[in-house]
Amino acid sequence: xxxxxxxxxxxxxxxxxxxxxxxxxxxxxxxxxxxxxxxxxxxxxxxxxxxxxxxxxxxxxxxxxxxxxxxxxxxxxxxxxxxxxxxxxxxxxxxxxxxxxxxxxxxxxxxxxxxxxxxxxxxxxxxxxxxxxxxxxxxxxxxxxxxxxxxxxxxxxxxxxxxxxxxxxxxxxxxxxxxxxxxxxxxxxxxxxxxxxxxxxxxxxxxxxxxxxxxxxxxxxxxxxxxxxxxxxxxxxxxxxxxxxxxxxxxxxxxxxxxxxxxxxxxxxxxxxxxxxxxxxxxxxxxxxxxxxxxxxxxxxxxxxxxxxxxxxxxxxxxxxxxx
Length: 324
What we know:
This protein is an alpha/beta fold. The protein has helices spanning 53-61, 98-108, 113-126, 142-154, 172-187, 252-262, 285-293; strands spanning 13-20, 30-37, 42-47, 68-73, 83-86, 160-164, 191-195, 208-213, 216-219, 227-228, 238-239, 241-249, 267-269, 276-281, 300-309, 315-317.
């Protein structure tokens, strides 16, 4: 925890019968959402791409207003917690350099400018971006812009931290740093709500899991390691392996290059329609996604989902062949 981090980060938050649609008479993206977020909660939100996860996070963060229902502080709390939000994509088309932008955002969060500048310098140093502190945002790479977006959230030490795929585009040290920062916020009594494609992200520390399905939000039971007896040649029992399947529209050469770059052994299939399906070990998924998303011209990643490979090595879609 950084020096001076407050232990009292505000109260909790509850969503009561919350719904969202983007035009009158239009389809409901979310409806009937009831969710309680207590101080000290680490909540993971899951669901299919385009199913409403980002909309739910924007509602929780206060970026979007609900079309129906209410967001209220928990009874007995200290009001709605201070909130910071890291979007899936950070738009760098702003007339600031990194330090100027972060100092301005710090002021918005109630910090004195000198303190905001100090915290900005601290986090930019930790994220390996100190040498680009005075570079205009529009000239920064996608990965560097994502570090700026993460910095503006961490330097405010919020009571509610909302992260929408915030790890995507970060290098390995920065992802580890963000993991640690999340733990610090929760340990300080804050609330962290996040979406991430890596099923292993903070898996042993998540206290609340919810899935967005058909416009509703439902609780998900924790995933426990499952032991399998391996009868081949007296081998010891093994655990179910976590794997990730990526569906992407990409030339064969680009996929091969992405896998080769990170040394990943992926299985590539091409169903009808010209798209590719890549199945690979979860530990390689971040690196492969960064390679695909950073391609020029950009590639269209349709979905990222967790799969399981049993002791036979045959992959199953999550939810098939057993409860999850």
